[in-house]
Amino acid sequence: DLPMVLRISQPDPGLIAAAVVGSQVQVTGRLGPSRAPGMAATLTIDEPTDLVVLAGPGALDDVANAMRAGLQASVTGLDPGAGALVAGLAVGDESLLPTDLERSMRDSGLSHLTAVSGGNVAIIVVVVMGLARAAGLRMRSRVLVCLLALGAFVILVRPQPSVLRASV
């Protein structure tokens, strides 16, 4: 896998909506260097027909996408910066962050707050373990429930390297 930025010169809202996370797409474009941190390249698509959705996401991605959309919808009435921070802190979703806030967080060394880390994983495990104990489950069952919850969390926030490291 090669992490890259996908830039669309003439965005088609219908096509972009169809190409949600988990979709298989075929793209044709110009490959160039990326200025984005952690990205190897930028692929620029000039025409909407240069991006074709081959298949939609699977069932797990559908559920995760619906949950992420629900979180985004729940913060729409808030101040844009506050809503973006809630989504970032909860599931690492930085798509709502205004450019100036993202830049300010990076410049002040606070960009790690919107990255999913061991802290997020610890919160999930502690809450689920507490609920499982309150439900009277034995230790083996509690561990199994925690592993299932952790797996669901990884799917929700997307299995990026930092998420996988924190989960392990």
Describe the structure.
This protein is α+β, with helices and mostly antiparallel strands and 168 residues long. It is 51% helix and 13% strand. The protein has seven helices and five strands, in the order βαββββαααααα. The strands form two sheets. It has a three-stranded mixed sheet with strand order 1-4-3, with no helix packed on it. The protein has a two-stranded antiparallel ribbon with strand order 2-5. The relative contact order is 0.10.
Quick synopsis:
With 168 residues, the protein is an alpha+beta fold. The chain contains 7 helices and 5 strands; from the N terminus they run βαββββαααααα.
Summary keywords:
alpha+beta, 168 residues, two-stranded antiparallel ribbon, globular, three-stranded mixed β-sheet
Specify Rg, calculated over alpha carbons: 18 Å
Largest sheet: 3 strands, mixed
Measure the end-to-end span.
Answer: 21 Å
> What does the overall shape look like?
globular
Low-confidence stretches: none
* String of helices and strands: EHEEEEHHHHHH
Helix/strand class: alpha+beta
Order of strands, widest sheet: 1-4-3
Mean pLDDT: 87
Provide the β-strand percentage band: 5-15%
How many H/I helical runs? 7
Instruction: Give the strand tally.
Output: 5
Q: Portion of residues in helices?
A: 40-55%
What's the structural blueprint in terms of helices and strands?
Blueprint: E1 4-8, H1 13-18, E2 24-27, E3 30-32, E4 41-45, E5 51-55, H2 59-74, H3 80-91, H4 99-107, H5 118-134, H6 139-157, H7 161-167
Helix pairs in contact: 2-3, 5-6, 5-7
